[in-house]
Amino acid sequence: MATRRVIIVGDRTTHGGIVLTGSSTMLVEGKQIAKIGDLVHCPKCNGTFPIIEGSNQAFFFGTGVALEGMKVACGAVLIGSQSLMYVDDEASGSGKSHISLNVLENKKEIEKKIIDLYWSYGENKIRLDQEKSRYYTDLNLHIVTENYHDGELVSVECEYEGEMGISKKTVSAVVNNNAACILQVFKNERIIV
Predict the structure, then answer these.
(1) What is the CATH T-level fold of the domain 3-101, as seen in this structure?
(2) Could you tell me the pTM of the whole model?
(3) For the chain, where do the domains classified as CATH 2.60.200.60 start and end?
(4) SS3 of residue 3 by DSSP
(5) Origin, by domain of life (predicted)?
């Protein structure tokens, strides 16, 4: 008999990914249980993909629960971490039920976007609309995103005129509630005004 761990939100994959979604009402160790169709962020494949395999012995509203060793649409394999809930998924048959093509088509990759950039200045992050800051060292860059998950990294390339001509600087910040802020973007730079 093969018993396998049930996958929960926060579990990892063989591609270094992380399970992002799960059942809102079924919990193990306080975390949502993942099932076929739930989403996994994959840094190796640069996207978010659905879980495509689930148990044929354990279901949630007719959908197979994801177990360690099962796959994500990008090819990654799920790695279980919790130690309270296991399923003997080979009691009858192959142990896997696969996602239908219709479900996979409905779970297409959601495009991540930067929908707005704006500047503020100082510790109080006073927005610069028409006003200008006297200093460039206290400028903060705000990034408004769409379809990013909390904890994901967003990067922006800034172009400015420095001592050596036009310079580029890539800055990154962690997204929280579809927004990120980089404080004092040009603090250690020299800009020609």
Answers:
(1) Tumour Suppressor Smad4 (2.60.200)
(2) 0.50
(3) 3-101
(4) strand
(5) Bacteria
